Amino acid sequence: MNIVVLDGHTLNPGDLTWDALKQFGACAIYDRTPPERVMERARDAEILLTNKTVLNRETILALPKLKYIGVLATGYNVVDVAAANERGIPVTNVPDYGTHSVAQLTIALLLELTHHVAHHAQTVRDGKWTRNPDFCYWESPLVELHALSFGVIGFGKIGRAVARLADAFGLRVLVHNRSRPADLPPQFQLVSLDELLSESDIVSLHCPLTPENKHFINAQRLAQMKPRAFLLNTSRGPLLDERAVADALNSGQLGGAGLDVLSVEPPKADNPLLSAKNCVITPHIGWATRAARARLMNIAVENVRAFLAGEARNLVSASAG
């Protein structure tokens, strides 16, 4: 089998190994592939792996040797699955590899918003504590989480993991999901979206992006939230109307935002959230712990192994995408 990895750098910047994949055939592994070079590099591929490099209809139909597409991520919108289906090419993804890592970052963003750890640590490095007349100081309000309300929108595996961590902090957990979750823990309260937004001191997004919920956190939804509430998004950037969120932050209507995703990544320099007040943004790192990436690599390899054995594993469909 001729295997091509179009953009392997973010999965494996050097701390993992591709050896398990190489057992299946000759491997060409590229750190990144610009759009204009996809055809050149994929021309002879029988197995093609991509993370964020787009495989559109035109490309898929023009690759005569292609037999399998593996997405090195959970989301697979970069692949025209319908075109692949037309050619009988299976498309797989990698679900459930980063649950604990994403949940951990969600709480890390919240803790940064409530204690401004990085800022205060930097003031100490800058010498402010050594010059201070008192034994302590703080430059922004410090917020205790215990007994506040934490709203989880989307109660899949990551939403559940975040809810458990929030519960451990003594937060009152409110849950909204498109369908009623099975075996909802008794300490969590299932509520409508309107109720969650109006009652939560912290709102955390853990839902997939669909045509129906794009920009659903907009000016109207933000106005429903408690004054000075916190907003967390470690799910998908386009869930937010970024201009509306930036305006709410700058006006003080929203107390703070902790974001690991933006609508365009890397973001454009004029993205309003980059300069918004009390907005903590990390560069889409929730998935990127070594442990999570190792799981991703292992699942991706097992997906290929299953394909070669004639088995269906982690297949995605055009209707679901």
Report helical residue fraction.
Answer: 25-40%
- What structural class should be given to the helix and strand makeup? alpha/beta
Question: What share of the residues does DSSP label as strand, in percent?
Answer: 5-15%
Instruction: Round the mean pLDDT to the nearest integer and report it.
Output: 96
- Poorly predicted spans: none
Order of helices and strands: EHEHEHEHEHHHEHEEHEHEHEEH
Structure, described:
The protein has twelve helices and twelve strands. It has helices spanning 19-22, 38-42, 57-61, 81-86, 99-115, 117-125, 128-131, 157-168, 193-199, 219-224, 242-251, 290-308; strands at 2-5, 26-29, 47-50, 68-71, 91-92, 149-153, 172-176, 189-190, 202-205, 229-233, 254-259, 279-281. Strand 6 (149-153), helix 8 (157-168) and strand 7 (172-176) form a beta-alpha-beta unit. It starts with a strand and ends in a 13-residue tail after the last helix. The protein is an alpha/beta fold and 321 residues long. It is globular and about 70 Å long. The strands form two sheets. A seven-stranded parallel β-sheet has the order 8-7-6-9-10-11-12, sandwiched between helices. Strands 2-1-3-4-5 form a five-stranded parallel β-sheet. The mean pLDDT is 96.
Condensed summary:
The protein has 321 residues and is an alpha/beta fold. It is 32% helix and 15% strand. The model has no long low-confidence stretch (mean pLDDT 96).
